[in-house]
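FW: tagging you since you asked about this chain on Friday. Here's the raw sequence from the shared folder, copied in full. Didn't touch anything.
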Amino acid sequence: MSDAFPTVRAAVVQAAPVVLDRDATVEKACRLVETAASQGARLILFPEAYIPAYLWGLTFGTRLGGRTPAGRRTWARYWANAVEIPSPATDALCRAARSAGAHLAIGVIERDVHGSRGTLYCTLLYIGPDGRILGKHRKLKPTAAERLVWGEGDGSTLPVFATDHGRLGGLICWENYMPLARMAMYGQGVDLYLAPTADWRDSWQATIRHIACEGRCFVLSCCQYLTKAMCPADLEVWSELADAPDVLSRGGSAIVGPLGEYLAGPHFGSEEILTADLDLARVTEARFDFDVVGHYARPDVFRLTVNRAAATPVTLGAPGPEAASSAVSAQDPGRGERRPAGAEAAAALEAGPAYEIRQDGE
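HL: got it, structure written out here
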């Protein structure tokens, strides 16, 4: 952050997807980006798993020791409507962000494009106002039954981006209950902390207000509003929703200031776009008496090391006698760059006094 204190209007888009229809949901998201931008928003956040949906109440026909054919087919439908990065779906989102002149962060179910392509990830996709993909964050630890359908991210996708509005980053839903994951964000100087979620409970409000106070940052939290009637009638495992309430997610999106005060919301019970003007001077003022990775830290007692290496299960050596020293290139999911396998063993990154963020697991 420079000597100046920028102000940005932020929007959180509490909306329902077109459940299990990627292309229709992308079209709706692009319209909502345009609407938020018309209200002056230059930072726009959508909920967790917005494309193609967070499927509240489904077990995908799974029980201990068994899976049903209908559950497998439902997961395959989820997979077919997931988002590859990049793809025509992300191209459309990029065009919307560029037209809006806004930073866009949106929750997607990401389909892995490497290896078997058989794993889905809960991902927060970042797009810049120039329409380019900045990077992504894959959820480190899916919660409870989410582990049936999503894989785990790794430390290579824990980015914080320097923008004209401040440093932008975040975590997804209950990752925000992981103290060390939050410290990885604070250690990178996050000012604008994004917390897309599927948690509509009242207790979530205490979480985002605590993060704002702890990190002395703005917190944007966005949740879907979804009813059972919005789910497709041809869902093969519809019976799993028989006992579910009519409202599957009531929302609760909000924007919180760096001393824990609400700036917008929380809003429950309908689709809504919430906006607030975020003055970065408030962040600096709030850190006067508490800086969790600065003057309020005790690095002589506590330190955090973050392994930012991509965790690839298979590294293929080149054929021939050089196989031991040559490997196929691997992609860094956090930046979209190509780099040789083994480049993760680069020197440790320069870090502040209360934390260490390393490129490897040393």
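FW: Residues 22-38 form the longest helix (17 residues).
HL: agreed, and Residues 326-355, 357-362 have pLDDT under 50 and may be disordered.
FW: great, closing this out.
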